[in-house]
Structure formats: C-alpha cells, structure tokens
Amino acid sequence: MRVNYYEILGIQEDASLKEIKKAYKELAKKYHPDVNAGDPSANERFKEIVLAYETLCDTSTRTGCDSTPAEPRMPDEEWEREYLLRMMAMSSRRNPRGCR
User: Domains of the chain (ranges plus CATH)?
Assistant: First the structure.
C-alpha cells in the first residue's frame, strides 16, 4: 500500500513549498501532542504529518515519492529518537529565558 503524503497534508500534488509549509503548520498545531495530551491517536497522526512534511520538503524524496509507488516507511526507534531530539531542540529555542 502506498502512502500518499499529499493526502495526509490535505494538499494537491502540484502544491508549492509555501503551500506545503502552510498545511503542515495548521495540522501540526491541531494534532501536536502538547495540545492533545490524552489522545494517543493524535500523537500518531502528528507523526504522520511530520513524516509527510519532511518527505515533501526535500526535493529528492518528493521526486521519488511522485514517480514510484513506495511501501510506507514505518517509524523505527532511530526515527523516534531523532524526532524527540528535534522537538527538544525546538522547545529550548522557544523559551525566552533559556530555562528548561
């Protein structure tokens, strides 16, 4: 089964990078784990949204996604660790006082 990253973000296949970012930001706000703390399905949806955004923003993976059907890439432990490190880095940058 092929994963349709465009469908996950709710955009057309000819969407510009600006449209991709806009759709990602809207969905990320809606499904972010901090906003939906008690909902595990929202956490899974958020991971799908992040993966779709990362795939479509990189021109080499986007081209491959458009041209060949691919098996879905399931998040593994390494991906989870990388994702958590990115989220921690983002949260530390947002804090104006630098406290953790």
Answer: 5-94 (1.10.287.110)
